[in-house]
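Table 4 source record.
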Amino acid sequence: MLRAVLFDLDGTLSDRDSAMRELFADQHQRFAAALQRIPCGSYVARMLELDAHGHCDKAEVYSRAVTEFALSDTLAAALLADFWSAYHGHCRCFADVLPALRELRRRGLSLGIITNGVVRVQEPAISHLGLNDLMDTVHISEHEGVRKPDVEIFRRALRALDVRAEEACFVGDDPDVDVRGAADAGLTPVWRRTTYWKLPTVRHEVVDDLGGLLVLPDMPLNSSDVVSR
């Protein structure tokens, strides 16, 4: 029986791609004078490609963008500063996330987040998304000094929740960083299916939204099913 569910943040709990699409569109408007010869749709599409679902350093994203669009080099710093100024205001959860998390807590499961990233970005994002009160533990790679898929960051979360690996599952969208990392650490890996990553190569459960977690094998139906040790 599962006693805990751990989650990736971006692309799993946070609808990051939609947020970035809006942010880049808004940014195009804010910098209309400098970007006027670039159609908004073209700007947004290329910025999303360069961002690579959050896997590319933002300074590099904007450096490449101004080069490709033949813009002034000095514009990269201004766009980057604007990005971070606007970022947290655009953060939002997928529609299915909060209801599913509340139901998991009602059933007595412990919940946590394991995310790669820097504290100054991820902590405010988690707060803005309204996730703090729903989580029993949060592990950010910069603070931990270790990143997914290293098994150590998964093991630290398990220790924080006082559960064994076989009593927990980890939900994420990245087939290597999340799914394989969780499997290597002994947790049940759950892939939040996406259209932009390749299929995971290790055995895993699949959900299309977080509501799918509620019917996974070994998922308790109520709090009395969760066995304490």
